[in-house]
Fold these 2 entries.
Entry 1:
Amino acid sequence: MCQLLAMNCNVPTDIVFSFTGFALRGGSTDTHHDGWGIAFFEGAGVRHFVDHQAAVTSPIAELIKRYPIKSKNVIAHIRKATQGRVALENCHPFVRELWGRYWVFAHNGDLKHFFPVLDGAFRPVGDTDSERAFCFLLQELRARFGDVAPPLAQLRAALAELVSGIAAHGAFNLMLSDGSALFAHCSTRLCYVVRQYPFVTAQLSDEDLNVDFSQVTTPDDRVAIIVTEPLTTNERWTEFQPGELKVFVDGQPLP
Amino acid sequence: MCQLLAMNCNVPTDIVFSFTGFALRGGSTDTHHDGWGIAFFEGAGVRHFVDHQAAVTSPIAELIKRYPIKSKNVIAHIRKATQGRVALENCHPFVRELWGRYWVFAHNGDLKHFFPVLDGAFRPVGDTDSERAFCFLLQELRARFGDVAPPLAQLRAALAELVSGIAAHGAFNLMLSDGSALFAHCSTRLCYVVRQYPFVTAQLSDEDLNVDFSQVTTPDDRVAIIVTEPLTTNERWTEFQPGELKVFVDGQPLP
């Protein structure tokens, strides 16, 4: 199994603090050393970094810990291979374009006997169950809505149905974003925290590091962090229910 | 106009030396400071770095100059905006998937009145003529060959025809790769050099830096570098003919 991290905010925010703790699980405080990746939306564009080295030793992970890329939607993943070789093309997150937007996807879990019919519009480059699931999701969204993106409520309903069908094949914890909303589905384990005014000092669980968010934010900032295991020891993390799909917009889950 | 750099090799090779000279044109020895990008194939996977900062000041460009990523196919671009805002989504190279392979594309030139009919399979995320051309190329390749990639000779012939049609709209110097072959088309200016045994010491034009390739290669290595303007002062660069599409495989142009 792998670990997932995502961030959704109402203003572009850097993920340096949370990524620093998360990256340690890629070979130091945990055993996820079969690659890692992170994608940042910046406007309509995406910065996409993947590496098949362990996150703790990767020079690119080092850069991201030091270089504050500001984004409203970020998805990161550290990999412990279950299906698919240790290779760059199997590193999450995956990126595809649909409806003139980039979509970013990462998955934690293991889908058994999941070989959906793919019509060729989106085809996996690597050999993971995860990329197959991503290609299938986009294919089905396009089949339902044609060439025009639907309103968010319709998209959410369609994803809930599609994701629950895929989750019948096994654990399907996922993060998906088109740069405006962040979709997070929990099969087995996910939790989130919303950081907003009044901001506190947060203490990383994976390293002796803390940050006083009140010093680096404005009272209007709001940031949701969604992750496999809580990243800090002194914040209140909310657990997802198994089978739950949450949609985060502007730093908070939609009702 | 922008500048292009590509590398095609028979064994995975790092591009640190050539990129170091090239990146200086992104704001130092030349005026291409509206962003830059580079993509490296590694197996079937792609590492894709884009930045809307000038290449000379970008921390990510600095990383690439120091971190020897080895690849058989690399495409890089520094941008001087002609069409499209200075924004991440307008930075080349662009990446899409077709036939279960990633395709990487970068363009130097300016296409006038180029608004092809796009059927929705590949749609631009940004607002450049270049990304429109890339989407159109992939759409037409898929329309001709369906869901199965054709042999290289057929692909080359189709691309030659499609590219020449697009080039009727203006300058269309381009680099395109699917990770196995590198296609380079010249409208106005491109040149290349093949580095092979016996290797010499090369001297960068843009910086007082040289490298003795005989120290860092084996006699079997072969590397083609294709670029807008020659990068070195003491190698023999071959100019493309306007209208010429060359295909590089294993470090040399096909006949």
Entry 2:
Amino acid sequence: MRAVTQQSFGEPDVLTVGEVARPEPLITEVLVKVRAAGVNPVDAYVRAGAFPLLGEPPFVLGWDVSGVVEQVGAGVNRFAVGDEVYGMPFFPRAAGGYGEYVAAPSRHFARKPKGLDHAQAAALPLAGLTAWQALVDAARLQPGQRVLIHGGAGGVGHLAVQIAKALGAEVYATASAAKHEFVRELGADHLIDYTAGDFAEGLTDLDAVFDTVGSGTGLRSLPVLRDGGVLATITEHFDEELAARVTADGKRYAGVVVEPDHVGLEALTDLVETGRLKPFVEHVLPLEEAAQAHRLIESRRTKGKIVLAL
Amino acid sequence: MRAVTQQSFGEPDVLTVGEVARPEPLITEVLVKVRAAGVNPVDAYVRAGAFPLLGEPPFVLGWDVSGVVEQVGAGVNRFAVGDEVYGMPFFPRAAGGYGEYVAAPSRHFARKPKGLDHAQAAALPLAGLTAWQALVDAARLQPGQRVLIHGGAGGVGHLAVQIAKALGAEVYATASAAKHEFVRELGADHLIDYTAGDFAEGLTDLDAVFDTVGSGTGLRSLPVLRDGGVLATITEHFDEELAARVTADGKRYAGVVVEPDHVGLEALTDLVETGRLKPFVEHVLPLEEAAQAHRLIESRRTKGKIVLAL
């Protein structure tokens, strides 16, 4: 089958389209014909060798897919051949989304939301589950609570703003001024231009902060949290010194890395189908332009998501 | 670390205790110090080479564990070091329960039920989730419905009887006469001695049959199902001919193979803690007697579960 693969760690141009073996589904697994694959910052780290989750090349990147069930392994009855599904196969132990087919446990997938095309659906699993697991599972955000989302226009952030609103929270979000209108339309109640001054000024007693930005943003957010408030972070997700400072300050630290989770995916499907969540896809590129997709993701200037179409 | 391992496929005596490398948790994973490991029929098939899920030996078997969180990987906030957990690591792609430590995604585990010791808790994940996914996810058993469970005294069956009762169903169960009292105490409403005649005699219009026995039992169960009733089977779980016959007969076929699922595990924890589910452990053996544990599981005459203690 055709797939984007790489023979060595390196810059984006190590990514080339080639032929690789088609995966076989084991018991409990489904084989999905990939129609679109989301591109995430973690992909670029793994490609470059900065975060060698998949060992040495060659390998096929890609943890976000939307597609059609081509074959079901023994014992699977959640899906049938022909079903449209989306999911997050095998993160972080294996990958394969940048290819024609991927095989993974049925519970790494859920039914694709009606009303999204494959490119939109492929933008959702990894980033959407990240936001869901940070806000719901880790921060346990409740209706009426006040949350600050750092990076409200980004791949994870723009979904987090919508999910926090759907949970009934009052949402503060940081973004550069040019993106305020975009984030406001996602439902943010208060926009903060972090380039124009200290984001923390005037903010106090928040219930939760969700940091998708990093570079000390988490630590600088401590003063805006109430006693017992939660700092959920996906950038400094195992920073023991930060965790200790948060705890010493009477607050709760939650380092979050996303895990495949069919129940979370089903919750996202429900949010989409009830009109409360929509992924924003900034660029859809063909598989052959995976290197360009990585350059875009590494620019850190994207709004929403980047997707490869097959 | 110490683990039961094997250098070749073969009879139970290929299982010996040796030293293997301690696993390292990746991001999203926990390292669990194993206190007890459940033994399941699938373990014996893999050991013998009949079902080579783990490739060629050497490998460490074991998909059922109860133990204590020793270390958490980056991004995990569902558990902390010292938490007691139980789960079903990595089935069917990897294993490792028959050893001192196992590493797997946090969502392959849940909090160990209060009131169970580690041996009892290790008896529950694979068999309990199998029963849960068959009765709840596949058969969608409803209160007041009537279900027949084949093999009501077995490792999966004795948990299925209790789960079906907890769901509010009326439960028919087959077992040899010597085990009727055991299965009745689990909550079965009607006991059938399959050795004394045709189990189907007098049975009609059932909503569901759950077959844990095999050897044609599923097919012979079709006459007792109502139109649209469900045959859920874990023994003929990918039998296309059987599936076609079930469908042609106006009923629904659900071949079930268990998948790790933290939500299902949490449901089992809740059932245990509210007094509605208790695994029965027939034998607890030390790690050194893994071969004997496999002889017992292969005898097919066990009542409840067999567990290795570490």
